[in-house]
């Protein structure tokens, strides 16, 4: 099939004969290239620093998943290669007949001792398709000999480059990049002789979907594990055909650590090999440099292609010495070993993993390591987690090998952890910063973590600055958690408990603080101080708003405008018409989306330093992990553990959830769900709060104007309450079966307490115990959350005890039934949800259905009444500034 296509190309192939020779004076030539090497190294440093965004973008489309991996590892996680015959039958977009000369430069690296150059050129001349050009890189003493040989290969366009002394692989590659102008390059080591189908096969295979993003070759090497000392190096070498009983031949295509002797690659990949701006890159063997850099920087694998016969072979020399020779070369210079030790990934060490939760830590120095140690160790013990750690290197206090020793010493208290060492070099300041910048970007790009954790420090050194700027450039694929070192200890229990799905949403919920105040400046400042000294675990976007009612005293006003809030934006709002608590609380918060939450705080409340931890833990657990499907009725999280039941018809009664759970299946310390809304420190969720706004607006109108609906929650004292937002909230909660989550720690230890000072709802009472002794609870000042929770973790939503407005244990079924029963009494429309399709839409419309005719009449009557009362002000209107 190929032969037929090839005939025309071949006949023209013999018509032309052209020989060119770049004859530069040998001494100046090598100096010239050394110069180029240096220049390009430093240029690359700067260029990558400034052009990083573009580079990443350009490369990432090719690389996120190589098609080889996508296709061959899909589902199974096991590489399925192809035999030679299968390879030739793969669909390929390659079509030789559309080319005269195929866009390939064949490059021969010719060394002194080799005398196969004639055979090599003959083999090229006999290829089934003609390459556009040929490049021979050799040393001066060989030039004349090669020119002789070339005369016999008349019909090839050959360029000879005299590269006298500088025989570093890095330099070869730079010469090739400069001189090769074709889309593809076929690079031959000294003595590698091509079978006549070779070029044709490579073009075919490289144009298949499966292999289009791979370097191809027919000989390769795998490391058998990472050697401790370079002398222990053991290699498995694959030849492309059997010459003795001991050599290995691949029957199917396979991923290898390195290709040897022949490389088929795209020219555009060459610059990638110069990306590593380290000095010791000059000492890497060619095999290592090519495979490593493409694999590491752009995830292009090195694939060994099986052969069938001498037409498809790549080398006809005697093979037995080849592996030994490579081994000798590797043992003589161990620069490559340092790359492996730093954790630079090679192929066989990096099986393709999809299912694991990839968590990456970036540790700068041993101080950070100490703080993070319990966290990374414990995370590594969680099922399905794969923890990877990047260190900055010995020069900056923590080398990869030292970290590996630390982890080893921890024994079974640490799981499997992969360590990568950037091993930064100390140069000038700019250089260090740009080194870390590009190294972090590239390493992260390669490791593809889903979660990245690093230290939040207040005074950043150059390294931390570089790390921050690199991380700011990441896009949405990676969740980034930036933790203050001293706060790490408090967050470990949460991080190992939360489902990974929830943990990844770390930055999604935005928690605003809404303070309601009027004229208790001492209380207010106590609250603000307690909020100010809480732990926020690096979160910086915690907006705080103070809502001041009309009639505030000058001290309060002065305090509000001067105190400083460093954890987010601070806003102060002031009312000009006194509204009381109802509008002050309700209107303080109107959510704009699913992630906008509010903690509502009256000024006589004080919070625990761990209130935010409690909120974040519960929010992530119940709203952002798998539990989110079951928690649609959860409308908030209380900071306060209730010790009084207020809704009993006969009056207030002490309450202790422990006594309710004792003797049931629920642990006595289980946090629990309750219908009761807490107004002494709680966070409210957006859907229900927005529904409440809609509900309240209609309810207030009805109560004051039309009197068409009478919504009374049975058995609840709340119907007697005046001017209380909670009264209406309780109606909605009862009708819908909504619940709030409450803490249940020993002795009612809570995340907020109420000092119950004289104010809107609390009057001084003679000869009775102060309210604070009835309602006050101890604040959690030591973090005992994980220790005290049953089984040291938060139970799944479906496992939580459900209680009603009176603190009695019940079930969601029961709550929903009670709600539907009341609903059917007060509204003409059926509830929008049912037992069978229990999907809530968070709109109160279905509750507010009344007879249309009656409603029109009521509105008419009310307007008439208003008119008759023109001069008398009716309801005080609430005005917001
Ligand atoms: C990468 O792919 C995206 C869409 O998948 C495309 O918008 C973008 O232009 C591509 N970038 C490059 C450099 O090809
Ligand atoms: C090869 O391509 C043809 C046409 O594009 C298609 O019908 C066929 O299914 C492909 N074969 C494979 C194995 O993908
Ligand atoms: C190959 O290219 C030639 C010329 O461009 C065209 O005539 C021929 O149809 C192509 N063959 C295939 C299989 O696409
Ligand atoms: C490689 O193959 C994939 C899958 O067919 C294709 O989307 C992509 O464009 C190809 N890339 C190149 C560089 O040919
Ligand atoms: C909050 O704490 C910071 C220092 O931790 C301090 O600068 C600031 O003044 C405090 N603000 C208040 C309101 O106490
Ligand atoms: C959760 O709900 C979403 C949408 O309602 C659904 O697609 C998903 O399958 C559910 N997940 C589970 C575990 O029930
Ligand atoms: C649980 O109830 C039993 C008796 O009903 C009592 O003896 C025990 O002390 C209670 N436990 C707690 C922790 O209250
Ligand atoms: C329980 O809390 C009260 C304050 O509400 C406190 O006075 C008491 O010492 C606490 N008891 C224990 C055992 O901590
Ligand atoms: C709550 O339970 C108590 C007994 O434990 C019972 O007397 C009371 O009627 C219950 N209240 C409601 C509203 O069910």
From TrEMBL:
Protein name as catalogued: 4256_t:CDS:1
SUPFAM superfamilies found in the cross-reference section: Nucleotide-diphospho-sugar transferases (SSF53448)
Gene3D superfamilies: Spore Coat Polysaccharide Biosynthesis Protein SpsA, Chain A
Coiled coil (residue ranges): none
TM ranges: 32-51
Keywords: Membrane, Transmembrane, Transmembrane helix
Signal sequence segment: none
Origin species: Funneliformis mosseae
